[in-house]
Design goal:
Order of helices and strands: HEEEEEH
Number of domains: 2
Number of helices: 2
Distance between the termini: 28 Å
Strand order of the largest sheet: 3-2-1-4-5
Largest sheet: 5 strands, antiparallel
Mean pLDDT: 84
Low-confidence stretches: none
Number of strands: 5
Structural class: alpha+beta
CATH topology of the largest domain: OB fold (Dihydrolipoamide Acetyltransferase, E2P)
Amino acid sequence: MDRVRQDGAEAGTEAGRSTRLKRQVTLLGLVILIGSGYFLVDHLVIVFDRTRTAATVVKVKPIRLRAGEKTRSYIPTVEFRTGAGKTVRVSTGQGSSQFDFDVGDEVTVYYDEENPRRFYLAVFPMMWGLPIFGVACGLLILRSACRL
C-alpha cells in the first residue's frame, strides 16, 4: 500500500523524490540568500551609519604559516583620530592575507562614534566579497531549484 503525499506525488516514486529534492534545494538557496543578504545589509549600515576616517597602520603582526599553507596572513594595528579628537589604537584581532599592509600605510576605517574601538577596515574583498559571493550563490541555487 503506497501512501499518497500531500503534494500529490506517491511516496517513493520518482516524482515524490524530485519534489522533495526541489524543496530542499530551494530551502538551501533561501537560507544562503537570507544569511548573505543580512551581511550585505549589515555592511551597508556600516558604510552609511558609521563615521569614516583615515587611519595609519602602526603595527603588522604576521601569522605563522601552518603546514601546507602558502599564503601568509597578517593582523594589522591601526591608529586614528575620532571626530572628538581622541586618538584610538586598535587591532583587527583577526588575520587575513588581505591585510598585507606596511607600517605607515594609510587605510580607511569605519568606526562607531559611541565606541570607536568598534571599527571596520575598508578593504574591498573583506568587506564585500563574502556577502556578494553568498548572494550570488543563493540566487544560483534558487535558479537551479526552479529547473529541477
